[in-house]
């Protein structure tokens, strides 16, 4: 047995929630690598060009998996092409906003505002997925947006980059809803492929207009950035595939801790009390919403099983 096979066997022997938590921690660490490089490269390149390379290298990374899935007959073929392209457009727009925020805000601030995406999911799921939302989830979302206001400090001058980060969070929430719809028809590798294709279409012309020819060293960093982003997304999917959302979701928020440390050590960005307080409120509200959604899903499954047992 090879070392890789031995490590895989040890991992799969662990309880499912432990596996999920480890995948999310790995996802968070890879995400930090991507974010640090985005901030560094963003001092030279426009967010459109950085986003272009992020999508380009994502496609390169997933090519072997596409071939394994059957190429044009498997990973590329889609039953809902317009929906996939719309999702790619929305997701790429969210990425551009996020990369702009990472380049112009302290990493911890940008990520904390990005976590408000869970709050936007509440009204979007109700409008687009016809999901019922209870009073508690509405209150939790409003409390979470209170945390956003704490971070934005509207009594002072609003930072345009913070507003862009908030727009990015709303677009991530919309992309998440579109993923839920598209995943009914296509497999995950197909979703990742069209995210990359849609992103290249969206960013190619703007990137060309602001293009700066990267050096070989910068190109290597762009490749690492794109590969780390794709790998982080893959680990994220794996984590939620094996673990229960309510148990492993807190580990996703380790991104904020890792990014805050990276911001302090690499860029000298010390999080303010406003950032810490607002982030705590946002994360607390988001975790509550995740818990309520999981409980509602369990109650629905229990009701369906009970209905199936009833005599005709």
Can you give keywords for this protein?
312 residues, 13 helices, mainly alpha, single chain, 81% helix
Topology:
Blueprint: H1 3-13, H2 16-41, H3 47-68, H4 81-104, H5 107-114, H6 117-128, H7 135-152, H8 160-182, H9 188-209, H10 216-242, H11 245-252, H12 254-267, H13 273-309
Helix pairs in contact: 2-4, 2-10, 2-11, 2-12, 3-4, 3-9, 3-10, 4-5, 4-8, 4-9, 5-8, 5-12, 5-13, 6-7, 6-8, 7-13, 11-13
Summarize this entry quickly.
The protein has 312 residues and is mainly α.
The geometry reads as globular
Structural class: mainly alpha
Task: Give average pLDDT, whole number.
Answer: 83
Which ranges are low-confidence, i.e. pLDDT below 50, for 5 or more consecutive residues?
Answer: none
Q: List the helices and strands in order.
A: HHHHHHHHHHHHH
Q: Give the beta-strand count.
A: 0
What does the main sheet amount to? Answer: none
Radius of gyration: 20 Å
* Amount of helix: over 70%
Q: Roughly what fraction of the amino acids lie in strands? A: under 5%
Distance between the termini: 54 Å
Tally of separate helices: 13
Structural account:
The structure is a single chain. The protein is built from 13 helices and no strands. By secondary structure, the protein is an all-alpha fold. It starts with a helix and ends with a helix. Helix 3 (47-68) crosses helix 4 (81-104) and helix 6 packs across helix 8. It is 81% helix and 0% strand.
